[in-house]
Design brief:
The protein is an alpha/beta fold. It has one domain: Aldolase class I (TIM Barrel). It has ten helices and twelve strands. An eight-stranded parallel barrel has the order 1-4-5-6-7-10-11-12, surrounded by seven helices. Strand 10, helix 7 and strand 11 form a beta-alpha-beta unit. Helix 1 packs parallel to helix 2. It catalyses: 5-[(5-phospho-1-deoxy-D-ribulos-1-ylimino)methylamino]-1-(5-phospho-beta-D-ribosyl)imidazole-4-carboxamide + L-glutamine = D-erythro-1-(imidazol-4-yl)glycerol 3-phosphate + 5-amino-1-(5-phospho-beta-D-ribosyl)imidazole-4-carboxamide + L-glutamate + H(+). Heterodimer of HisH and HisF.
């Protein structure tokens, strides 16, 4: 059985790690390279870095950041934010990233998924989907959750899989930063309907939430930010508890 993965997420703005609630009210959470090194040494399975401002200058900063992170960590890491071309991905992978995450650019130009998979392989391509449940329907949002689309989460996720993406990173905007648990019902539906791994994001507040998302949400990996950045949950204790609940993890 494949082990479940624990993935700290570092949202990057102006070279610093930040964290908010429901995608707003950001506060500083530290230096991303220092945090990455700590997580790599304390049991994280992977890391995700997202440039949430994603300006042209930000992408250059991110490419430099990738180089610095690659020198410090020995676990896989994914980079996203403002990626819109084969060239963008090429730079990040050459600088040491293991995977890239695309979001708004994939919705605006779905062919980009196909092009990236053809060039770099599906194992490198993660499609992030930010969705909000509105009147019982999960609606995909863009630009850091600011712009609603007409896309349904599950329909878009299926298309993403058909176009060759290797993983989906699903963030529930309703749950993000609330610390009330992951969107397990939606996650379970995604995991049942798709054959590629689903990373759960949005809502981690205590250790039991991770247990629930692996059992009830059928997630393949769980991503969190503030509970790790502000030392509310230690990855070691989290994994020990998952192991006690017969959830396969790398100890």
């Amino acid at each position: 059985m494949l082990t479940k993965r624990i993935i700290p997420c570092l949202d990057i703005k102006n070279g610093r790690t930040v964290k908010g609630v429901n995608f707003v009210d950001l506060r500083d959470a530290g230096d991303p390279v220092e945090l990455a090194e700590i997580y790599a040494k304390t049991g994280a399975d992977e890391l995700v870095f997202l440039d949430i401002s994603a300006t042209e200058e930000g992408r250059r900063t991110l490419a430099d950041l990738v180089l610095r992170v690659a020198e410090k960590v020995n676990i896989p890491f994914t980079v996203g934010g403002g990626i819109s071309s084969v060239e963008d991905v090429d730079i990040l992978l050459q600088n040491g990233a293991d995977k890239v995450s695309i979001n708004s650019s994939a919705v605006k130009n779905p062919q980009l998924i196909n092009d990236l998979v053809a060039k770099f392989g599906s194992q490198c391509i993660v499609v992030a989907i930010d969705a909000k449940e509105i009147d019982g329907e999960w609606i995909v949002h863009l630009v850091g959750g600011k712009v609603p689309t007409k896309l349904n989460l599950f329909n878009w996720a299926k298309e993403v899989e058909e176009r060759g993406a290797g993983e989906i990173l699903f963030t529930s905007m309703n749950h993000d930063g609330t610390k009330n648990g992951f969107a397990n019902e939606a996650l379970a539906k995604l995991s049942t309907e798709l054959n590629i791994p689903i990373i759960a994001s949005g809502g981690a507040g205590k250790i039991s939430h991770f247990t629930d998302t692996f059992i009830d949400g059928k997630a393949d990996a769980a991503l969190a930010a503030s509970v790790f950045h502000f030392k509310e949950i230690s990855i070691k204790e989290l994994k020990e508890e998952l192991h006690r609940n017969a959830i396969p993890v790398r100890l």
